[in-house]
Each structure stands twice: as C-alpha cells, then as structure tokens.
Design brief:
This protein is α/β, with parallel strands linked by helices. It contains 15 helices and 22 strands. 32% of the residues lie in helices and 21% in strands. The strands form four sheets. A seven-stranded mixed β-sheet has the order 6-5-4-3-2-1-22, with no helix packed on it. The mean pLDDT is 94. It binds zinc ion (ZN).
C-alpha cells in the first residue's frame, strides 16, 4: 500500500510539499516555501512533520521558491538523498536558492540589529549558504519524457508543464507486491498562451491525480484583448508622461514580458525607449532562458530567428540594471520608462522602491501580470481598496492607475485546467485539488462535480492510501 500525505499548498498556493511512502521508501514531492503574510511565512521555520533523514529522495516539479525554497532546510535537518529535477531546473535551482539565502541573510541581519537594540531574542536564519551549496550537490537531472528508475520499484518521468523553463508534470509508477500504481502531480500548469514555452503535455493514465488550482475560479481574458490593453496602457503612459511599473517574477514572467514588448516594438506600438530589467536575478534567469532556446515553442519564426542572438537583439530598448547604484538611478526617472523588477508579488526586492517612487504619481501605471497571494503588497494593489500603503517604512498614497492583465499569467485558467484533466482516460483518477486558495479550489471542485468527477480538497496533514 502506498500513502500520500499533504504537507503544504493545501487551501493556499504556496509551500508545495507532499510525502509519498510505501513499506520501503519515502519520497518527497517538492519542498517549497510558504509565501504571503508574516503569519503564513512563520510556517517556514517550523520543524517538518516527518523526519528529513528518513527521506530517500526528493522529486522537484520546478524551480519556483514556493516549490523548492525549503530544500536547504530539509538538508540542514538531516536529508541527504538525491534531488531529481529536469535539465533546465538544474541551473535555475542554483539561481533561486542562492538568491533566497542572500535575501534572507540580509533581512535577518537587519532585523537582528533592531532586536539587539531592544534586548529581544535574536532570530536564526532558516539555512545558510553552506546548506544551499551542499543541497545543490545532490541534484540529479533527468530529461523530459525519459522514464527512469529512481529507487527499487519506483520509476519517474518528467513531462513539460509549460509554466516556466524546466517546469514539469511529475509521473511516478510505484510497484508494490506485484501491483503498480500511477501518481501524476500536475506541478504548476502553464498557460497555453505563453509565447516562449510549449503547451503543457497531455497525460492519459493515472490512479491518483494532484491538480493545481491557482486560477480554478476564473478564466483569463482573451490574449488579444490583453495585448490591446497592454499597448493602450503604454500609449497612455507615454501621453501623460508617467512610468510603467511591472512587478514580475524573475523566472518566467520577465522573459515573457521581454517577448511581448519586442513584439509590440515590431508593430510600432512601443513608444517607450527605455525598458529596465532592474533585477540581477531576472538578468541571470534571462541568460539561462537564452541558453535553452531548444526548449522554446517554435511557432513564431520572427522570434526563432532572433532568439539565438540574445534578448537585446529582440528588444532594442532593453537595459539590464545590475548594481544597487544603477537601480537607484532609475528612481530619479520621473516618466517615460518601463521598469520591470521583482519580487513578483511585491513582498520584497527592488520593486518596492519603484512603487514608493511612483505609486503616488497620478500619471504612473502599475501593471500586474502574475498571481498575487493573500497578504502580499501586490494583492492589496489588485484589490484596490486602500488609499495609502506602507512601503519601506513610508506611507504612500495610491494615485497611479493599476491594471491587472490576467492573460499574461503563467498558470492555466479554469477552462484550461478542466481541459487538461479531461484527457485522462476512464476510469478517471482519484482527484485532489492542491495549490489554490479556498475559493479557487472550491469553484474548480464544483466544475468537476458537474462533470461527475468528484474532487477532494485535502487538508494540511491529511494522508490518503492507494
Ligand atoms: Zn510556479
């Protein structure tokens, strides 16, 4: 008998972590960070609800922090097995974890100075650079579609999920006493509108299916309408002299944006001449994307021709901003620029400086192109019910225009999720909805129930057998 326990991304979109075990082995699917409000993030410091030293292997769906961010803590707490991931996740994992440990160390030093002054107990970092480096030594890349025996009786294959470079749908065959069961974990499923990546691979057989539900309660607007809205916004910003600020995940969203802006430039719809990527991390990620153009979608011949020459050949006004000095210089630009920076949900990173310098300007435009979790600054911008927001210790009046362009999201929407799942043959797999806030998961659940396919929304800590 095989058991699966849900230890994260249940009733919320972050903290992806599932434990699969049979008599002989224990495999962890993802080991992600909880992200959002301070309360949510406190969960990262808690002990794992299982013994990390007892885990034989980790299988990683993709390199976003909410799927991989607690891996170094897992190692620090005793894990020492292989971490299976795709070829392109291999460099991305290094980029993500080194950046995460760097930011954490800086934040903790800052907070501890404050605590020391007020005589409070000092905080411990979740992990340190040495843990990240040791964890990276455990990576074992596997190509897409290549069935591999990873432990006795357990084989694994990765299938392109089209969400970010290297993202995978995970399929495991588990053989126990002459009986083989198949578990499919969708990981984060891409939006088929993604210009750079392929559509999510279709799978047809499973006994148990874990399906993400980030956008389970809504459908994206039509892509063409969204691109019109994007070019209208750029035109309006140019006319009234403001900047366009775009919070974007460094891996995935930023590269899609460079693509769309290059496309608009070719159509004569990009009036801005300066497009800043203000994020060393996004710059590195863009270079990793550029080194993996063989994994790209090839349905745009114009782009395919230019892509091998790098991003600057595709988008003329592109400016990489690496250093803190370069970043601060952007703060002095009062209008006419497009500024893309992280973090994608505005809860950290350089984007907060750009919001502080632009949010109070009537002529500025803020473009939201990715999912904003509950409790983040980005969510407050989307909800739009605050007149003032506290950013980097300053009270900032919200005067800029806020636009949400859902069709540019990296996640499949409700109809795309239903369509992807519909390819599974009857008898339909037992279905569990994960990686979605409650309303999204409930709405998707009722769609499945109308299709006579019952879906369960698991609770954190819940264990199922199959
Ligand atoms: Zn993701």
């Amino acid at each position: 008998m095989t058991q699966l326990s849900f230890y994260g991304a249940t009733g919320q979109v972050t903290g992806s972590c599932y434990l699969l075990e049979n008599q002989q082995q224990r495999i962890l699917l993802d080991c992600g960070m909880f992200q959002g409000s301070k309360e949510t993030e406190k969960q990262n410091a808690l002990d794992f609800p299982f013994d990390p030293a007892s885990i034989d292997a980790v299988v990683l769906s993709h390199a976003h922090l909410d799927h991989c961010g607690r891996l170094p803590k897992l190692l620090k707490d005793g894990f020492n097995g292989p971490v299976f991931l795709t070829d392109a996740s291999f460099p991305l994992l290094e980029l993500m974890l080194k950046d995460a440990v760097h930011l954490q160390t800086r934040d903790i030093e800052w907070e501890n100075k404050r605590r020391e002054r007020s005589g409070k107990e000092l905080l411990e970092p979740l992990y340190e650079l040495c843990h990240v480096e040791d964890l990276l030594k455990l990576r074992q890349p596997i190509a897409y579609e290549k069935e591999t025996i990873i432990l006795p009786g357990i084989s694994l294959s990765f299938h392109d999920a089209g969400h970010i470079l290297g993202s995978a749908i995970v399929r495991l065959h588990i053989t126990d006493e002459n009986d083989t069961k198949t578990l499919v974990f969708s990981g984060d499923l891409g939006n088929p509108n993604s210009p750079l990546l392929r559509d999510p691979s279709l799978l047809t057989e499973a006994d148990v299916l874990l399906l993400e539900s980030t956008y389970g309660d809504r459908n994206h607007k039509l892509l063409e309408h969204t691109l019109d809205e994007l070019s209208d916004t750029l035109a309006a910003a140019e006319k009234n002299g403001g900047n366009v600020i775009i919070p974007a995940f460094s891996v995935g969203r930023t590269q899609d944006l460079i693509y769309w802006l290059g496309k608009l430039e070719r159509q004569g719809k990009l009036p801005q001449k300066q497009i800043y990527i203000d994020s060393p991390m996004a710059i590195s990620a863009s270079e990793i994307y550029a080194a993996n153009t063989t994994l790209f979608n090839v349905d745009d011949p114009e782009f395919s021709k230019t892509a091998p020459h790098g991003w600057h050949a595709w988008l003329k006004g592109l400016i990489y901003s690496q250093s803190a000095e370069e970043s601060m210089a952007i703060n002095r630009i009062a209008g006419g620029a497009i500024i893309i920076a992280g973090s994608g949900m505005c809860n950290g990173g350089r984007i907060r400086h750009h919001l502080k310098y632009n949010l109070w300007r009537r002529n500025a435009h803020i473009l939201i192109v990715g999912f904003q979790a509950e409790g983040t600054l980005g969510r407050m911008l989307v909800d739009g019910n605050k007149k003032y927001l506290k950013i980097l210790g300053a009270e900032v009046k919200v005067e800029a225009k806020i636009h949400t362009l859902g069709a540019l999201s990296a996640h499949a929407d409700q109809s795309q999720l239903l369509d992807w799942a519909s390819h599974f043959n009857a008898p339909k797999p037992r279905l569990y909805l994960v990686h979605g806030e409650k309303t999204a998961a409930l709405s998707l659940q009722s769609c499945f129930s109308r299709r006579a396919w019952p879906a369960t929304i698991p609770k954190i800590g819940e264990t199922i057998s199959f």
